[in-house]
Amino acid sequence: MPTNLEVEVRYDETLDNALKRFRRKIRKEGLMEQIRALYHYEKPSTQRHNAERSRKRRRQEGDERPRKTPKSIPRIGDYSDLLWEFEHPH
Asked: What percent of the chain has pLDDT over 90?
């Protein structure tokens, strides 16, 4: 768990804005999820089930996060990208 979550109030900054930055920092660190996980035990099968449900929900809403896919390695003799660049210059 992160131990150094602090936000200094900047000069001429409202307390509301500083609080907003603090909450954003907590959300980015995932601190609230960790605290919620400590309150009750969730079986691994239930965790997988909930993760699958949230993936399906995101997919239906169109908010699917981009997947990290490995870049394809061009085969020897595959010059289609070079031909495209040659035919369509910037």
From this structure: 18
